[in-house]
Design goal:
95 residues; alpha+beta; 3-stranded antiparallel beta sheet; globular
Length: 95
């Protein structure tokens, strides 16, 4: 039996909204396997990803095996991120 191809695509809008819990579950699973990063849970991940979903300029690139999210990369403009992250960046950059 041939392996199914992985579909890699950028998602936004309604498709992004529909995939938030899938990405949150993936993040929880990854961080459970790599606990030195942090111990996430679904509530935390939903809150974390909400800022990304609210940003018109965020990016979600998903790796899909059929309908299953098996990989994800996310990005958000610094201006749309939370104040804590923005302050850390400005402090490190000397601004």
């Amino acid at each position: 039996m041939a392996a199914s191809p992985i579909d890699v695509r950028r998602v936004s809008g309604a498709e992004l909204q529909a995939r938030l819990d899938d990405v949150a579950r993936l993040r929880v699973a990854v961080f459970r396997d790599w606990p030195y990063l942090y111990a996430g849970d679904m509530d935390y991940e939903r809150g974390y990803l909400a800022a990304y979903a609210a940003s018109a300029d965020s990016v979600f690139v998903l790796a899909l095996d059929g309908d299953n999210v098996v990989g994800a990369s996310t990005g958000i403009p610094l201006a749309d991120d939370d104040a804590v992250m923005t302050q850390r960046f400005l402090l490190r950059s000397g601004r």
